Automatic annotation (TrEMBL):
Keywords: ATP-binding, Nucleotide-binding
Protein name: ATP-binding protein
Lineage: Bacteria, Pseudomonadati, Bacteroidota, Cytophagia, Cytophagales
UniProt key word Glycosyltransferase: no
Domain annotation AAA: ranges: 23-152
Record field: transmembrane: none
Classification via InterPro entries: AAA_14, DUF4143, P-loop_NTPase
Pfam families: AAA_14 (PF13173), DUF4143 (PF13635)
Record domain DUF4143: where: 206-356
Molecular-function GO terms, alphabetical: ATP binding
Length: 411
């Protein structure tokens, strides 16, 4: 196993929940590294002296592991192999392929000396069925594709070298893919990466969305995906998407648009960010922003017309990094200004972030600093840009975004 797939932060998180009386649910986009994470964790357990027989690993993407079997067949098969008087670690990969999988998970969880780990590629499955049955008894760990730091490490690039051309590397990172397996395909050329991303996207759309939710109008669905992908970082609402598509002679009701958006977020292709009213200190219910799980997917979703400006792509990468660092994230808004991200850390601390590609002129300086300066509280405020020379101003810290992306995680 390649050393670069050692997803340190996620492994540490799993380790911190080891033997705790909770089901560990690892979710995220297909191919974002969930199975690899469980395999790495299994290796760690073996290194800690856990016996091979104490670990059971089932990959339910392989039909031979579930075809012609009911949840209770699998349950008794696992039960039979449990080691008495010892801790047993049960890994169930892509568990949503088992009908009534929640009963299987619940049964194992209730068994003596079992520590249960499951993965899934669909937020609905894991939130609805599991939440009902297991309320309060599971912890969710969401896995994302490689961060910029992991990406560079996976390419054997020394991130301590101060003279790296970060801009060129960032272009590769966002233009190719941040999915672990896709990065391995770099040697074989961009076409191979494109085919790989296309296959993943098709599987998600076919298996996880159109089949599961019985969407017949695939063209309308495809157009909505394309529209959101072309509007990364812009405020959107189902009704304005519906209106825009009407102008293009496509009649899709806004409630249908809303459902489609839910499915896309549920499959971890897009992440939705709600607006937060900075004056009234409350979450608003309209005009959300959407960010893409891997900017490389723009090649598939938008294709040749890929023209999302680099500022919005940078904003997308910063959003995913803030998520990785354990934040809850909103877009900040007042009557006449907008702040890209309002974050609440896992310890309840508030931080504000503004993102711009570069501070090119006076009006950019005024706009970017001004948005943060108008917030009259004492929480930390950051402006992230690609500029090599940074200038702090009235309490706003101006940081080079590449250095920020490569710094050690806070949580």
């Amino acid at each position: 196993m390649n050393k670069y797939t050692q997803r340190k932060e996620y492994i540490e998180k799993l380790m911190s929940y080891k033997d705790k009386d909770l089901i560990k649910v690892v979710n995220g986009l297909r191919r974002s590294g969930k199975s690899t994470l469980l395999e790495l964790f299994r290796e760690q357990l073996l290194m800690l002296g856990v016996g091979k027989r104490q670990i059971q690993f089932y990959n339910f993407e392989l039909p031979e592991n579930y075809l012609n079997k009911t949840w209770d067949n699998i349950y008794f098969e696992i039960k039979k192999k449990l080691q008495a008087e010892k801790s047993n670690y049960i890994f169930l990969d892509e568990v949503q392929n088992i009908p009534h999988f929640e009963k299987l998970v619940d049964g194992l969880f209730a068994s003596e000396n079992t520590d249960v780990y499951i993965t899934g590629s669909n937020a609905f499955l894991l939130s609805s069925e599991l939440a009902t049955l297991l309320s309060g008894r599971y912890i969710e760990i969401s896995i994302l594709p490689f961060s910029f730091k992991e990406y560079l490490t996976s390419r054997n690039i020394d991130i301590n070298n101060r003279y790296l051309n970060y801009e060129a590397l960032f272009f590769d990172f966002t233009n190719e893919t941040s999915l672990p397996k896709g990065v391995e395909l770099r040697e074989e050329g961009f076409d191979k990466i494109y085919e790989y991303l296309d296959a993943i996207y098709t599987t998600i759309i076919e298996k996880d969305i159109t089949q599961r939710h019985q969407i017949n109008d695939k063209r309308a669905f495809g157009n909505i995906v394309k529209f959101i992908a072309s509007n990364i970082g812009n405020s959107l609402s189902p009704s304005n998407i519906s209106t825009t598509l009407k102008q293009d002679k496509q009649n899709i009701h806004h409630s249908t648009v809303e459902k489609y958006l839910e499915y896309l977020v549920g499959s971890f292709i897009f992440y939705k960010v709600n607006r937060f009213d900075l004056k009234g200190r409350k979450q608003l219910a309209t005009q959300e922003k959407y960010y893409l799980v891997d900017p490389g997917l723009l090649n598939i979703l938008v294709g040749k017309e890929r023209n999302t400006d680099r500022g919005h792509i940078l904003e997308n990468v910063v959003y995913l990094e803030l998520l990785r660092r354990g934040n809850k994230i909103w877009t900040g808004t007042t009557r006449n200004t907008e702040v890209d991200f309002v974050c609440k850390s896992s310890t309840g601390d508030i931080e504000y972030y503004q993102v711009a590609w570069e501070i090119a002129n006076e009006s950019t300086i005024e706009r970017e600093f001004g948005a943060l300066e108008k917030i009259k509280d004492n929480y930390p405020k950051y402006l992230l840009t690609t500029d090599s020379f940074t200038q702090n101003r009235s309490g706003v810290k101006h940081l080079n975004v590449f250095n920020w992306l490569l710094e050690t995680k806070k949580n």
